[in-house]
Design goal:
The complex is a heterodimer of chains A (438) and B (521). Chain A has 438 residues and is of the alpha/beta class. Chain A has helices at 14-30, 36-50, 52-64, 71-84, 92-116, 122-134, 151-172, 204-224, 238-249, 271-284, 299-309, 319-335, 349-361, 379-387, 401-416, 421-426, 431-434, and strands at residues 137-143, 186-189, 227-230, 259-265, 289-294, 340-345, 369-374, 392-398. Chain A is built from 17 helices and eight strands. Chain A starts with 13 loop residues before the first helix and ends with a helix. With 521 residues, chain B is an alpha/beta fold. Helices cover 39% and strands 21% of the residues of chain B. Chain B has 15 helices and 23 strands. In chain B, helix 1 crosses helix 5, helix 2 runs parallel beside helix 9 (237-245) and helix 6 packs parallel to helix 7. Classes of the chains: A alpha/beta (438), B alpha/beta (521). At the A-B interface, helix 3, helix 4 and helix 7 of A face helix 11 and helix 12 of B.
Chain lengths: 438, 521
């Protein structure tokens, strides 16, 4: 991997900017109204986030909730978090009131949990997924789990993947998809859950172990005509992931199938180099490779780790830089069709509109382009994209709350981050500025 | 001087960096064995009485050293105590700081070479070896700044007609007796601390790592530390004893085992005929470091931290995690997952980046841990053991997780200094604190909890010198986590901390009456 390259401010043509504005307006107009639940949930979360002491206590409580043995235990934790946040003894009455609020939030937490994590198992998630299919919206299933620290846990994750593929494959029988589209049965797989042996400083040491499990998953996907999307996590596992894919996809057995996907994170300074690696996979395969382009969800982790070790941060410091890189990569990957299928993984209407407008202006139209949103955050957007003639897919996590906690906290933070596009929209910043070039 | 910043460790996630370390090791291998002479003043006496070998391939000789005799120790100490040595202490603090800063620069340039030496001589895996060298650089830079700071003197009040000044003078000659487990960092830390404060240092590296010591002392000389102010006296117990007992030695800086440390404290307390001062002892000794895992802990995080704390560098760190005390409600879950994680550990050569657990330092260590393993089987249950490479010619021991030990088992109270981790259920935080309090040690401790009250209790009541909350218990950083233990774990000094240099100086107060003929002049 090469070191960071200077990012140039892109200068799309005026025609493209006009088209982006139009696509963006259409999208916003097509969005269905948010449910009352969602509106209340968002309002509560935003309210909590406005008060630093409450915000910290709330996240700590959400984090600890699944291991608390009772509501009493949970309440005790919450009170302790609030006191640590600076409340003195004299604030006892205030604390009691806040504890009551804590309890209310605990209930809200359950609701929030369901909001982001749709069900506890793939079988239970089927009604939701089939509901999406009826609206011509796709889904990709993500199996949440605890960190994998031993071989048995990796085995059990792989077994859950096989089971999920079986269930999805059966449910998708008879569902036709376009030639340039991924199969309806669609599973996202985490490399860090395929092996307990990831060592960031020795990426080769995990690939053999992970490859054995990935092969079984690919074979099953082949058998039930499903798509397997290999997720990208933090930089600690990036090279392992890329080596794993590079070695397995080059094997004769998987040269032609199943449908396979990878993830490109635009917040990485060297994302363009990673894109080249991915184009390389596509070059060696008989079928296309899908690339899910995302901003990247490990910004805090990467920044903290770099600071702790005195390293230059591998991620861009500002959202605008990431957004610009995102558009640059969008165009690069759209130009690489049909070898590449592009899935835009963003809730940023500007980013979505940009991909639509650029595709429309290209010779290939919207073939091989789809949009992916997160369950609980981008549901309305998925409907809007479908209504505007785009292909949408919802990233659908399933699993129990304990296992899903890391995921849940990340999503909640995303939903209240000052830098979030969704929050900016929630504050009803005007559409023109939201759609302006980054 | 610029503000102190920790030296960044290598980012071994980058392939280009991994290539560099491979090349550095190949370069070093061509130069082996390294010579570790007795260095006194301008004289170097080479010899081959002592050799260090690669603990992972014992037919590879890494360094050949001369052993300093009692006569040579006497010459080194006498030279340091004489005019030549004292001249170093009379240099201004900024001058001494500049020399140490220069040494830091040289070490920075040669960091891969020094780290490769630690890989070979001590089977210290690359990431640990690199951190070792970075810490050495940090010590040089940090103590350089602290020396300048100390030179400002102590804060004392003056009143009209009376001028007071408190300043700190070097003690004189410091005997540095260094360990092999941080063959560069700790030797460098104790030596540069002594030098920064204006003392002379007579340095005895561990008998297992004379090569690392010789390279470091050469760098300090190259940077401008006068030959008379810094001597190298390789050797074993006899050389160390001669140093400690020498009447012209003013202080002993020692890092090592409790047994040796206790002997040093005793010997240093004896006054030799004609000796005109008490010897100070700055000792960093062992520990039996406990980590408490609370009922509400995040096991995903805790397991990673516990595994690294117990098994990195095969547990051969005084800060290593030795005992897990876990709330009984989480015991079975934690023990089962830890057992799986231990079974998956990769035991191998230190030079291989995928190695989790390298060989132990020497045959004694290997046999000690093998005996402990047999004892564990007799007294409790070995919950998991990792595979050991069958064909290697080195001091390999299978890392193990042990449970079910009776409270009376010596495996729960003596330091093993190797890859054996015990796990035991406790009733809760009270029970855990009581068990920790019952130990004679007080070095590092860990607590994994999401309850602020539990964390506060540990912060208040735990007797350890360094308590780590919701993170691994090793890897103290200079300037950020000053390191050192209490009770029998040490004499209370904090390496890499703001008051470390106070151990190497004596305070003096000068009071001057500034009144003449009833007037303040």
């Amino acid at each position: 991997m090469q070191p960071a390259q200077p990012q140039q401010r892109t200068s799309p043509t005026d025609d493209l900017e006009v088209a982006i504005l139009n696509r963006g307006r259409e999208l916003v107009a097509a969005e269905p109204r948010r449910s009352a639940w969602r509106t209340i949930d968002d309002a509560v979360t935003r309210r909590v986030s406005a008060e630093p002491r409450l915000r910290s206590a709330f996240y700590r409580m959400v984090d600890v909730a699944p291991v608390c043995r009772s509501y009493r235990d949970l309440g005790a934790h919450f009170v302790a978090y609030l006191r640590r946040g600076g409340a003195g003894r004299r604030d006892a009455a205030g604390i009691a009131a806040l504890a009551a609020l804590g309890l209310a939030l605990a209930v809200a937490n359950r609701v929030a949990g369901r909001r982001f994590i749709v069900a506890s198992s793939p079988q239970r998630a089927l009604p939701y997924i089939e509901g999406l299919w009826r609206h011509d919206i796709g889904a990709t299933l993500d199996l949440l789990g605890e960190a994998v620290v031993r071989a048995e846990e990796a085995d059990s994750y792989a077994a859950r993947c096989l089971e999920a593929l079986e269930i999805l494959g059966r449910a998708a029988v008879g569902r036709s998809t376009a030639a340039d589209e991924m199969p309806a049965a669609n599973l996202s797989v985490k490399p860090s859950a395929l092996t307990a042996e990831i060592r960031p400083w020795a990426p080769w040491s995990a690939t053999g172990d992970a490859a054995a499990r990935l092969r079984a998953i690919l074979r099953k996907a082949q058998e039930v005509d499903a798509h397997v999307h290999v997720d990208m996590e933090s930089l600690d596992s990036r090279e392992t992931t890329l080596e794993l894919l590079g070695s397995v996809l080059a094997e004769d057995e998987f040269r032609a199938g199943p449908s396979i996907g990878v993830v490109l994170q635009a917040y990485l300074r060297d994302a363009a180099d990673v894109a080249e690696v991915m184009l390389g996979y596509a070059g060696e395969r008989d079928g296309p490779v899908s690339v899910r382009l995302v901003k990247g969800a490990y910004w805090d982790h990467e920044t903290i780790e770099a600071t702790e070790h005195g390293w230059e941060s591998p991620v861009f410091g500002t959202r605008a830089e990431t957004d610009r890189n995102f558009e640059l990569l969008t165009r690069k990957l759209l130009d690489a069709r049909p070898r590449i299928r592009l899935a835009i993984g963003s809730h940023n209407v500007r980013s979505i509109a940009h991909a639509l407008a650029y595709a429309d202006g290209s010779g290939r139209g919207r073939a091989g382009l789809e949009f992916q949103v997160l369950r609980g955050l981008g549901d309305e957007l998925a409907f809007a994209i479908a209504a505007c003639g785009g292909r949408a897919r919802v990233y659908t996590p399933v699993g129990d709350l304990i296992a899903g906690m890391a995921y849940l906290v990340r999503r909640l933070l995303e939903n209240t981050s000052n830098d979030s596009f969704l929050v900016a929209r929630g504050r009803s910043a005007d559409l023109e500025s939201l759609l302006a070039p980054p | 001087m610029s503000e102190f910043v920790n030296t960044p460790v290598l980012d071994l996630r980058r392939p280009a960096v991994r290539e560099q370390v491979g090349a550095a090791l190949a370069d070093l291998d061509r130069r082996l064995p390294i010579a570790a002479p007795v260095l006194i003043g301008d004289e170097a006496r080479h010899g081959e009485q002592l050799t260090s070998v690669d603990p992972g391939a014992t037919d590879r000789t890494v360094a050949v050293a001369a052993v300093a005799s009692t006569v040579e120790v006497d010459r080194a100490v006498t030279l340091a105590a004489g005019e030549g040595g004292r001249a170093w202490g009379r240099r201004s603090a900024p001058e001494r700081a500049a020399v140490l800063e220069r040494a830091a620069g040289i070490l920075q340039e040669r960091r891969l070479e020094l780290a490769a030496m630690a890989v070979r001589e001590c089977a210290k895996p690359w990431r640990e070896a690199d951190a070792d060298v970075c810490e050495a650089i940090d010590f040089l830079r940090y103590y350089a700044r602290q020396a300048v700071e100390l030179d400002r003197g102590g804060a004392v009040a003056s009143i009209p007609g009376e001028s007071n000044r408190m300043d700190y003078r070097p003690l004189g000659v410091v005997a540095v007796i260094a360990p092999w487990n941080f063959p560069v960092a700790i030797l460098c830390g104790m030596t540069s601390g002594a030098l920064a404060a204006g003392n002379c240092a007579v340095v005895k590296p561990a008998e297992q790592s004379p090569g690392c010591g010789a390279l470091l002392v050469a760098i300090l000389h190259e940077a401008g530390v006068p030959a008379a102010a810094l001597a190298l006296v390789p050797g074993a117990a006899e050389t160390g004893a001669a140093l400690v007992e020498h009447p012209l030695v003013d202080a002993v800086a020692f890092t090592g085992s409790l047994a040796v440390g206790a002997g040093i404290v005793e010997r240093a307390a004896r006054l030799a005929p004609g000796q005109d001062h008490f010897k100070r002892v700055l000792a960093e000794l062992g520990g039996k470091n406990c980590a408490y895992v609370d009922g509400d802990a995040d096991l995903d995080d805790a397991i990673g931290a516990l595994m690294a704390g117990a098994f990195a560098f095969a547990g051969q760190k005084c800060s290593a995690t030795a005992r897990i005390l876990v709330d009984h409600v989480r015991h079975d879950e934690l023990a089962e997952r830890m057992a799986g994680a231990v079974a998956a550990l990769h035991v191998g050569q230190a030079e291989r980046l995928e190695t989790d657990v390298p060989p132990l330092i020497d045959r004694d260590a290997m046999e000690r841990l093998e005996r402990a393993g047999v004892q564990a089987e007799a007294e409790g249950t070995v919950l998991a053991r990792a595979q050991v490479p069958g064909d290697a010619n080195g001091w390999f021991v299978a890392p193990a997780l042990v449970g079910g030990l009776p409270a009376s088992s010596s495996l729960l109270s003596t330091e093993l200094f190797g890859p054996l981790l015990t796990v035991e259920p406790v009733a809760g935080a009270d029970d855990a604190l009581a068990r920790i309090d019952a130990l004679p040690f007080g070095l590092t401790g860990g607590v994994f909890s999401r309850d602020p009250d539990t964390i506060r209790r540990f912060a208040r009541e735990s007797p350890v010198g360094n308590l780590y909350v919701n993170r691994g218990m090793t890897g103290a950083m200079v300037g950020r986590q000053p390191f050192g233990g209490n009770r029998l774990s040490g004499t209370g000094s904090k390496a890499g901390g703001p008051d470390y240099l106070l151990g190497f100086v004596e305070p003096r107060v000068v009071t001057e009456r500034t009144v003449r003929h009833g007037l303040i002049v």
